[in-house]
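Deviation from plan, reported transparently: 6-O-phosphono-alpha-D-glucopyranose complex.
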Amino acid sequence: MCGIVGYIGDQQAYPVLIKGLHRLEYRGYDSAGIALINEKGDLSCYKAKGKVSALEAAVSDKDVTGTIGIAHTRWATHGEPNEINAHPHFSQSRNLALVHNGIIENYKSLRSMLSSHGRTFCSETDTEVLVQLVEYMQESHDCNLFTATQLALKNVVGAYAIAILDKNNPDTLVCARKGSPLIIGVGKNEDGKNPEFYLGSDATPIIEYTDQVIYLQEEEIALMNRAGDLTITNLANVKQTPQLSTLQLSLDQLEKGGYPHFMLKEIWEQPDALRTCIRGRLNVSNKDVILSGIIDHKEKFINARRIIICACGTSWHSALIGKYFIEEAAQIPVEVEYASEFRYRNPVIYPDDVVIAVSQSGETADTLAAIQLAKQKGAFLYGICNVIGSSIARATDSGTYLHVGPEIGVASTKAFTGQVITLALLGLAIAKEKHSLSDEMFHMLIDELEMIPDKMQWTLEHNKDIASFAQMFTYAKNFIYLGRGYNYPVALEGALKLKEISYIHAEGYPAAEMKHGPIALIDEEMPVVVIAPKKGMYDKIVSNIQEIKSRKGKIISVVTEGDTVVRDMSDYCFVIPDTRDCYVPMLAVIPLQLLSYYVAVAKGRNVDQPRNLAKSVTVE
Ligand code: G6P
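Because the crystal trials were delayed, the predicted structure below was used instead.
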């Protein structure tokens, strides 16, 4: 939520910042802003409502020179998305400019305290309170920006990643974080002497310039100066040693590669992404599964009384599929929790519980808080994340990365299938340790899992021409998605995808539950998407389809290749190859992703940046 970029060095900052904002736009795109200090020492600031391109247009005739600057793309929390509420925000004297990602929970009391000391506010944001507080500390304690920031943050309740410019100190950039991520990139100035520094909410604005980064830790404050010095302390002013890491990310992974949208690119990337995910982990010749994340913690899984999976959004859907698989393969009870609910009750957690966080970004605030709660209660924590070095990955005792590459489209696609296959690997790895499957079944599941990426490719090729079909459904105000067993979470995910990017209301339901309510909604206007592979509960799903048909609902089905019964009953059919029940979700979701994509395109929606959504939700 909200993206931050910063730069100090010998280059012109504006091109670095604007390109960085474009890369971070998936985090929020309500408004954008930039602040720079030019050679004369002027602090200039420009803001625009809407996308980063609106900001670019707004500054086309402005002075954007300067080799130090900060920038922000916003996902509104406090105050409507407009130019006034856009970041950067200024202090009273307009000497300090600050950008912020997160929420200052006690901003109201801080605001009244500052007002009582004569400070006046231009915006409705919590961020303006923060920058005013830093300046108040600077003045009342007669200290430098770094110390003032430390003092200010000691009074703050909430989450923040911030970057601050000080007009009176044009050679220093200060940043800090708690709860929201912030990365410092360490590059080389052209003369090869002093380092230059980049700041980013994630690595995407940095990778173009350097792969050497420092992940700022909780409650750390950093000061970077033009001489190439970097000082990091905690809030208590204790010096911290910066840990340099090398990024595992390449620039071409961040480009659209000829596709009109990131979402379509990411849908088509799935076979390769999943091949990378299972590489070195699934060994078909030896009939083995090796997950390094559990090797040193075997006993935790073997002796687990229970597994609790915490997640949000699409990750919650993959977690549900993981539950079915792990229970079946490893015979351990699994509970799946919305992280936002879990963290605010007083859940019973035993020391022999394993708590798994599933998160593409590894930064979702609710998921992070849920595992912190579980940690306090003594559970073993396992992370399944895509973003390497993310907060959840670092907060867990062990884990497995998806390795599906960066996901930029706000609607999650390859991360979903990556999570499902990772949870399948985990289920198999635990089953191996627990000997809970027969050898025959274990080998069969390994062989079949290895074929999933090829079967995904087949599914993509056989369902790619649905653009004109999708056009027929732009009239629809509602959709219902039905599935049973492993495909019930797929129905939820299909419905979520459609809602997110086309803004058509859609509900996912377990097919047999339809008769307990949703059947009342069925009429000739209602498209009903039914996931009906020729598997375990096929006959039952056929009966459900008959019930819809007799009420004139329009049937769009996902069927196994060669199926004729459901095909004949359907108005439109998507075909997938045969596979085992437990692996069907990774294939069945593909036509549903394509359907939502093409309906959204036909409706003229902004597929990669749907309204009100953000890719990474770092606020509650
Ligand atoms: C947001 C995104 C979703 C994502 C959810 C959880 O709502 O738009 O695509 O599923 O957050 O994110 P996570 O990064 O934890 O998987």
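The pocket of 6-O-phosphono-alpha-D-glucopyranose is lined by residues 312-315, 359-361, 364, 367, 410, 412, 613, 615-617 (CB under 6 Å). We consider this an acceptable substitute for the interim report.
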